[in-house]
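RESIDUES AND SHAPES:
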Amino acid sequence: MTEQATGAHPQPRPRSGGQQSAPESVTGAQSLIRSLEEVGADTVFGIPGGAILPAYDPLMDSTRVRHVLVRHEQGAGHAATGYAQATGKVGVCMATSGPGATNLVTPIADAHMDSVPLVAITGQVASKAIGTDAFQEADIVGITMPITKHNFLVTKAEDIPRVIAQAFHIAATGRPGPVLVDIAKDALQARTTFSWPPTMDLPGYRPVTKPHAKQIREAAKLITSARRPVLYVGGGVIKARATAELKVLAELTEAPVTTTLMGLGAFPDSHPLHVGMPGMHGSVTAVTALQKADLIVALGARFDDRVTGKLDSFAPYAKIVHADIDPAEIGKNRAADVPIVGDAREVLADLVQAVQKEHAEGHRGDYTAWWKDLSRWRDTYPLGYDQPEDGSLSPQQVIERIGQLAPEDTIFAAGVGQHQMWAAHFVQYEKPATWLNSGGAGTMGYAVPAAMGAKAGQPGRTVWAIDGDGCFQMTNQELTTCALNNIPIKVAIINNGALGMVRQWQTLFYNQRYSNTVLGAGPIEAGGAPTDLGNGSAVGPGTQRSAGTRVPDFVKLSEAMGCYAIRCEDPADLDKVIEEANSINDRPVVVDFIVHQDAMVWPMVAAGTSNDEIMAARDVRPDFGDNEDD
């Protein structure tokens, strides 16, 4: 099969230049490692165990594949995802059978939701034992079938090179996604011959990348005849490396651009045509622009529920041009007036030419009145935050200053929750692949291992993980991995002592009944009374700690894992602490920011309601006047 033209990021071509190497006698395990070398995999995140152990022996001899020994298989999967998102290459993780493989399920599901090219290699019990409930047996192929782009069960050593080549090709082409390769232990131990490249046989797998010319022309006509168009840009534009073409189209049309949570960085935040992020916690201008639009041009976006709100009330006046590499996405949630199947880079390049032709024929959109409305909304309802009255740290300010003081080309990886939304709002993203997060699955614990993977793939760039104290406690053990493998990431713990986003919902919708959302403790004074943790537990008097310390003590914990750790709780120290963290590059750095507990994410559209019900702040519902339907 010939390589498809694609906007995704396939691995380097085999070094053999297309000529097949002479067969060599090897084990299946040696064949696996040689195959990984030939597809260009340079980093594997994993943990050995019985069924995959044969592969780890030849891996020790490889000079082209670096293995990073993680502390939990979930960390391996998220690290491979962060590596893929930061580099554009296929991420690779490896685990043994049974619990090792099932621990990869969450990161595989995460990669599937966010279209990340990932190859997960798992060991399986010997082929004759499959189906017998053997020790550490799990049907990982069956388990992951709904959350992979494709998966393979390999029981013959001679199939390994072909399957690995196919797995990387499938993961990287078309709509990127995760592929699982489950290999029986006896296939790894058996003798076989190795030659490269193998002959790939993928009948029916032909991703369509070139858009239909007629649909492109129809889209261009709609753009130039619209009065209130919006370019609705998703993560597919970044995956297609189409950001330059997007900028050309936006400046050519002068239409407003909104970038989704997964699309941040596809278009510069500072560009005057950018109106912000849409969705449940999107900017008022972006959300309202989609609601009032008469044309939405969706590029590599999927009309997910977090963007649309109540679907039947979303963008009621808009015609839809929907361009996506995956035909299954088009019309799935919102019917398209002009459906375009194709790679975003080719779609945008063709749209630019078609719009230029429309302009040459005297057809040019007049968006003067539209921009007057957009500018008024932007000026009236800007993103902002209030400083806490008690003088404590504002979490929004912490994140904003981290973004402002970070070195150029810093990569930011966020966990999930309030800090994720604040990082989306208050850090400016000017370039693609500088913002990594779990968008579709919303996986807590993503940030630290994803930052580790990003730093492993981009060692020359600064990588900040913006994490919450809830997320951090799920995967912080990977800081040990970072310390031992010279992967000096920086971690900002936005520590409010609670599951912040859940607590926000309890504040707004559950009469401030904070059931099981308190994580930490308040001050612990020497000789003082036990401090109620809010969950039936208590912390007794003990060592004197600073007034803002919560349990666990993240500074001591991080130091125990080989990190440089600092605590910050005074706004006057904020810049000094961030600059100190930026100056240390020989080990991981963790900063425990003790922030105000009651800060909330605004704007907000409550789940299940219409985007017309957006609240700019608590008890502040924007008034946009009567809806237009012409």
Notes: Residues 1-17, 523-547 have pLDDT under 50 and may be disordered. The first helix runs from residue 28 to 38.
